[in-house]
Amino acid sequence: QVQLVESGGGLVQAGGSLRLSCAASERAVSTYAMGWFRRAPGKEREFVAGITWSIRRTDYADSVKGRFTVSRDNAKNTVYLQMNSLKPEDTAVYYCAASGSDYAGPRINEYDYWGQGTQVTVSS
Q1: pLDDT for 40-96, tens place per residue?
Q2: d(Cα 84, Cα 15) in Å, to the nearest integer?
Q3: Dihedral of CA 115/57/122/43: which sign?
Q4: How many Å apart are CA 79 and CA 50, to the nearest integer?
């Protein structure tokens, strides 16, 4: 059973930056696509960004394009989400997820494993 642990969340002012990390328990995850999702209060979970393992193709939600960057370090079994120019509407619990089918898009049911989430709060 793959375990994913997110870290790096916190409280930041609007315009600031945070870098989230997601560490996987097994090296096998280096062959999985990884995605980031978020759930804001009162809203559904939504896709933020994803990265495949094969060619490291990335995908982003329109709301974060140009501000967020997803990357991965397979040697460390870790995926990152660099978040810049944060806005209050980015406030949410952020989750990482792993897809064994090398799918890195927004379809939630394509992901096999999920982390517990890390809170990001952006103050205005």
Answers
A1: 999 999 999 999 988 889 999 999 999 999 999 988 999 999 999 999 999 999 999
A2: 7
A3: negative
A4: 10
